[in-house]
Design brief:
Layout lengths: L1 H14 L17 E6 L1 H4 L10 H9 L2 E6 L15 H9 L7 E5 L9 H18 L4 E5 L9 H16 L4 E2 L20 H21 L7
Helix pairs in contact: 3-7, 5-6
């Protein structure tokens, strides 16, 4: 009888949690998902790989999990060497995944050869498709990025995208106002260095946090 009692006591001790152990991480505590569709500024170019772009840094700054889609040279209208627009990149790389918490559609730099009406129509079509497929996902549109003085056509693209976003009540963020020190620009004069991507991420993360805090939605550091 004594042996049985001792055995039961040992089992009881083994069943107790370890001293100082914290609670197990639950499934509901996973990081929110932040998806991007974009061009070479978003997916990386030259010496800057995808995991060091402003999109990846934005996810880190927000404490969210980034999923980055798109290809260099692409846009809302422009298919580039990849042979696909932003809408097609969304369909191929993102639409089959579970809905994210936030989707950022960023670009327009490569659409400057298209008319504002064409850009506006393509952006509206993409927004319509996204909102029909993921009705509960917040979407934000970021306009074209220019590291040097933007040409007049860049503002036409920016305005067309802002109009498409406003028509569907999607927040629009404009990076054309940003200024870039020499160390933020690659020798090609077009793309950001690692420091430039970090600067762009700080701006975008700040904008996203502020908007979500205003809505009582922000989760993160």
């Amino acid at each position: 009888m004594r042996r049985l009692t001792r055995y039961a006591a040992v089992l009881a001790l083994l069943a107790l949690p370890a001293c100082g152990a914290g609670p197990a991480r639950g499934a509901g505590q996973s990081a929110p998902v932040l998806m991007f569709v974009g061009d070479s500024f978003t997916v990386g170019s030259g010496p800057v790989p995808r995991w060091e772009t402003y999109a990846a840094h934005t996810g880190r700054l927000m404490g969210w999990q980034p999923i980055i889609a798109g290809a260099g040279g692409t846009g809302f209208c422009n298919a580039g060497r990849a042979g696909r627009t932003f809408e097609r990149s969304y369909e191929l790389e993102l639409s089959w995944r579970p809905a994210p918490d936030l989707l950022v559609i960023s670009g327009g730099h490569n659409d400057r050869r298209w008319s504002p009406d064409e850009v506006r129509g393509a952006a509206a079509a993409l927004l319509t498709k996204v909102r029909a497929h993921w009705p509960g996902t917040e979407t934000v549109m970021v306009g074209p990025i220019w590291m040097e003085d933007p040409p007049r056509k860049a503002y036409g693209v920016r305005d067309a995208l802002a109009q498409a976003a406003a028509a569907q009540k999607v927040p629009f963020l404009d990076p054309l106002h940003m200024t870039w020190p020499p160390e933020a620009v690659l020798p090609d004069g077009i793309h950001p260095t690692r420091a430039g991507h970090e600067r762009l991420a700080a701006w975008l993360a700040g904008e996203l946090k502020a908007r979500r805090q205003d809505q009582g939605l922000y989760q993160g550091p």
